[in-house]
Automatic annotation (TrEMBL):
Region (Disordered): 21-56
PANTHER family: ENDONUCLEASE_EXONUCLEASE_PHOSPHATASE DOMAIN-CONTAINING PROTEIN, SGNH_HYDRO DOMAIN-CONTAINING PROTEIN
Protein's name according to its UniProt entry: Uncharacterized protein
Native source organism of the sequence: Dreissena polymorpha
């Protein structure tokens, strides 16, 4: 151990001893238990309130998301996270190309499954932006959930 680290460890031990702590007592950090966020209709914003202004104002990063999808998110109903991504198309659109006289039909550009953590994070951040516009007090639960998923995926 470097001398500077030993000195710092000794200083911390002296402070802990002055506070009455056991010399070798170690702090244990417990992970919080995060459950699914509960939605309280009393805490969500009503139409015409200032909380709804964020939907119209400068922080309107989800304007391309259909209102029906946003309403499902606000109610806590199931949505497909892929539908929040800009390159997702729910229809069966396919890309048609002609190469060397051959017609090639492909699904390029359409996300079938979310397989990379970065793509999931993009979709979940959009979900959070929409959800938190009505349920502002749930931000820590959503951040903890995202952290749990990212930790598990890593």
């Amino acid at each position: 151990m470097p001398p500077r680290a030993k000195k710092r460890r000794a200083e911390v031990a002296q402070v802990l001893q002055a506070m009455g702590a056991e010399p070798r007592q170690r702090a244990v950090r417990a992970e919080p238990i995060v459950t699914e966020p509960e939605i309280d209709p009393k805490e969500s914003s009503k139409p015409g309130t200032s909380e709804q202004e964020s939907e119209k104002g400068w922080l309107n990063m989800y304007a391309q998301i259909p209102l029906q999808t946003r309403q499902k998110i606000w109610k806590g109903e199931f949505i497909d996270l892929r539908s929040l991504l800009p390159i997702f198309r729910e229809s069966n659109q396919q890309k048609v190309q002609i190469r060397n006289g051959e017609i090639i039909v492909s699904d390029s550009g359409v996300i079938k499954n979310i397989e990379r953590m970065e793509v999931w994070s993009d979709a979940f951040l959009m979900y959070m932006a929409i959800f938190l516009s009505r349920h502002r007090n749930k931000h820590l639960e959503l951040i903890q959930y995202m952290n749990n998923i990212r930790t598990a995926a890593g």
